[in-house]
Design goal:
Shape: rod-shaped
Strand order of the largest sheet: 3-4-6-7
Strand content: 35-45%
Largest sheet: 4 strands, mixed
Order of helices and strands: HEEEEEHHEE
Number of helices: 3
Helix content: 40-55%
Structural class: alpha+beta
Number of strands: 7
Radius of gyration: 31 Å
Length: about 200
Amino acid sequence: MRKILIGIAAIIVIVLLFRYCEFKKSDSSTIEETVLIQQEIQNVGKLVVTEGHFSEVLTYKDQQKYLFIPFEKKALVVVNADVTVSYDLSKVQYDIDEKNKIITIKNIPKEEIKISPEIKFYDVEQSNFNEFTGDDYNKINKTVKENLRKKIEKSTLKTNAQNRLVSELSKILILTNTMGWKLQYNGQTVDDNSIDILL
């Protein structure tokens, strides 16, 4: 009888140990998946960049009068600008629900537009009473950037940047689906057919 009780106790201990190890293994797996997903988001979170090149030519004129005599200055301005549209995905805000295996994207940052114009002046005409000054160059620079922003809005540059963003975010989607996790944004579950809701 004593041997039977020892045997039953041994079996109960073995079963409990097995269940405990199984629970710990499952918990450890979820933690590993969470760490892997966080690393993937950080890897994606560099910059998604689209670059474009724009050119324009404009004429700058300014006139000042001294004793009713007009003194004009003018120049032909040639602009070549590199424009970068980017998303800083390191600023993506998200929550990870380990228990339910859900990643919720809370916020995606707006695109950042950087304009780097190279401005050259040709056919410069000025007088001693109306010379080019720093204010003129600032006005020209401001006008150039405003014109370029209008061109960017009409171009496909921002659309291309959004496509690149979707491409990068889909890597997170593939990873989460592979591991049995769900990706959510704006209260909706994101899948292959609805990834554009991230935008």
